[in-house]
Design a protein that fits this description.
about 375 residues; mainly alpha; about 45% helix
Length: about 375
């Protein structure tokens, strides 16, 4: 698969008026028109034609025509990942959503693609419009397209989750477990995986996050916003490699009281038999699925909730920090899933590049504006 590192510093027309250059130096804010113009310009750079409905009377169409006039026949390669990246930027622009072009690059977008849908577990790769076709979804629709807020799932899962919150998905799972007919084409386990995935990027009250089973491990790039889920992932990943018994005992020493340690050991004792089952599952993907499925057992979830609710928010955060201080031996990985990763603060405007959002200036030098 050919991949290119895109030069995300836009090549702009050299005929931009001095007044526009001064305006670009005075403010880094990019308007909806400027974003659309740049997307069209980048299509022209790669010799691609945007969808016909976006060409007439739109900033995107203006940018494409301007880019064609300046670039002429000189274009850059356009492998599949570049085409998908540009299509995703155009989709974000059409939706009025921010797009983090600094961190969500074409190459990083390619790394988000897995072999299977994390929700349905069906193999990805179907033709466009088919249920197994891969699509890039925002986990939290209230936020823009950022590296820590997107995942590649199947079209079937995308359609099922449309308009539903984390708790909506969890309620559907409970109804199916109670014997109601299938809803939205997903079974109960898939609905719980959808709820967990959605919650990774959605801030929840402590008691609500504690109710969620970890039926899916975070896909590459996703950073968890709820501390309870971060602790869930950290503890689950201890079982990803041999030596988990010693590691889990070492973690227990950080707990503040005997009762907390007892609750912790009861939880580990409920999860450990599932680890034996996971060990007999061939392949990394099968092992990960077995660890995720362990959270479908009612006893595991009950022991987890009892432990984490008695520990409290402050105790959860303290335990996360302690595990982090223990070194890399406790931060394990399964198929690219990281237990803990740094997260850009929600108020940090550097990752935003879309309508009404102001990315930080990289340089104080005057730069022309790519908008007519």
């Amino acid at each position: 698969m050919n991949q290119v590192l895109l030069d995300l510093e836009p090549q702009r027309p050299e005929t931009t008026a001095p007044a526009q250059a001064a305006a670009g130096a005075a403010s880094c804010a990019r308007t909806d028109e400027q974003v659309g113009f740049q997307i069209g310009w980048d299509h022209a750079r790669h010799g691609l034609v945007p969808p016909p409905e976006w060409l007439e009377g739109t900033p995107l169409g203006q940018g494409w025509r301007a880019g064609k006039a300046v670039q002429g026949g000189r274009t850059m390669p356009a492998p599949w990942v570049t085409r998908q990246w540009l299509a995703l930027r155009a989709q974000a622009w059409r939706e009025g959503a921010a797009f983090d072009t600094e961190h969500l690059t074409a190459v990083r977008l390619a790394r988000l693609h897995g072999a299977r849908c994390p929700i349905t577990r069906a193999a990805l790769g179907g033709a466009r419009g088919t249920p197994d076709a891969p699509v890039v979804e925002r986990l939290d629709p209230a936020r823009g397209y950022a590296l820590d807020n997107v995942a590649v799932i199947s079209l079937a899962a995308s359609r099922a989750r449309a308009g539903l919150s984390t708790l909506d998905a969890l309620r559907r799972a409970h109804r199916l477990q109670a014997g109601e007919p299938a809803d939205g084409g997903l079974d109960a386990a898939a609905w719980t995986r959808l709820a967990a995935l959605r919650a990774f990027a959605t801030p929840l009250p402590f008691h609500e996050a504690a109710r969620l089973p970890l039926t899916v491990l975070p896909p590459p790039g996703v950073v968890l916003v709820n501390p309870v889920q971060r602790l869930q992932v950290l503890l689950t990943l201890q079982f990803g490699k041999p030596g988990w018994s010693n590691r889990t005992r070492e973690i227990a020493q950080a707990l503040p009281a005997h009762t907390a340690r007892q609750d912790y050991h009861l939880f580990i004792g409920a999860l450990a038999p599932r680890v034996v089952e996971a060990g007999s599952t061939p392949g990394a993907a099968g092992h990960q699925a077995a660890l995720e499925d362990a959270w479908l057992h009612e006893r595991v979830l009950r022991r987890w909730q009892h432990f984490v609710l008695s520990l409290g928010e402050a105790g959860v955060q303290a335990l996360i920090e302690h595990i982090g201080s223990m070194g890399t031996r406790t931060v394990l990985r399964i198929t690219g899933t990281a237990a803990v990763a740094p997260r850009t603060p929600r108020g940090d405007s550097r990752v935003l590049n879309g309508p009404g959002r102001a990315p930080a200036c990289r340089s104080a030098a005057p730069r022309p504006v790519a908008c007519p």
